[in-house]
Amino acid sequence: MKRLAVSFAVLMSALAVQAQVTVKDAWVRATVTQQKATGAFMQLQSAQDAKLISAQSPVAGVVEVHEMAMDGGVMKMRAVPSLALPAGKAVDLKPGGYHVMLMDLKGQVKDGDTVPVTLVVEGKDGKRQTIEVKAPARMAAAPAMKHGEGHMHKH
């Protein structure tokens, strides 16, 4: 029985290490009435090589991972099929760079609202991890969040 318990503990530890993506400083830009799109921003860090492959939120009809990049002197935004999360390196999703785009909003995202965002991350072994993020909405000019805000839960 003891061997079974030890084996189970080792298995659970291995599963926990599998992708182990952490989310810090998540927030969503608040919108004005009739605005149909906004961005979600955060810092992602994976213990092992992985990639962000999709996102969704009940506040939006369409959710995509986007990048903003200079193209011929013009800043352009486009959806990307995935975003690499190199092992041990923080990847910033921020205004003007990579971000989660929330489109076809179902209503106004007001300053102070909590916006649920589900991230799907795939490890190099093809296994997927779902991460539930609760991101506070704030105006773009609002000060940075205090430590502990924008928390997440792994599934």
Protein described:
- This is Copper chaperone PCu(A)C.
- With 155 residues, this protein is mostly beta strands.
- It has one helix at residues 2-17, and strands at 21-29, 37-46, 50-56, 60-71, 74-79, 83-85, 90-93, 99-105, 114-123, 128-138, 152-154.
- Strands 1, 2, 3, 4, 5, 6, 7, 8, 9, 10 and 11 form an eleven-stranded mixed beta sheet that branches.
- Strand 9 and strand 10 (128-138) form a beta hairpin.
- It is globular.
- The two termini are 28 Å apart.
Structural class: mainly beta
Helix count from the secondary structure assignment: 1
Number of strands: 11
**Strand composition percent:** over 45%
Output mean pLDDT: 84
Assembly state (oligomeric)? single chain
- Radius of gyration, in angstroms, nearest whole number: 17 Å
Overall geometric form: globular
Which sequence of SSEs, written as H and E, runs from N to C? HEEEEEEEEEEE
Enumerate the spans where pLDDT stays under 50 for 5 or more consecutive residues. 4-18, 142-155
Question: Main β-sheet, in a few words?
Answer: 11 strands, mixed
Kindly report how far apart the N and C termini lie.
28 Å
Assign a percent range to the helix content.
10-25%
Pfam families: PCuAC
InterPro entries: LpqE-like, Lxx211020-like, PCuAC_sf
Keywords: Signal
Protein name: Copper chaperone PCu(A)C
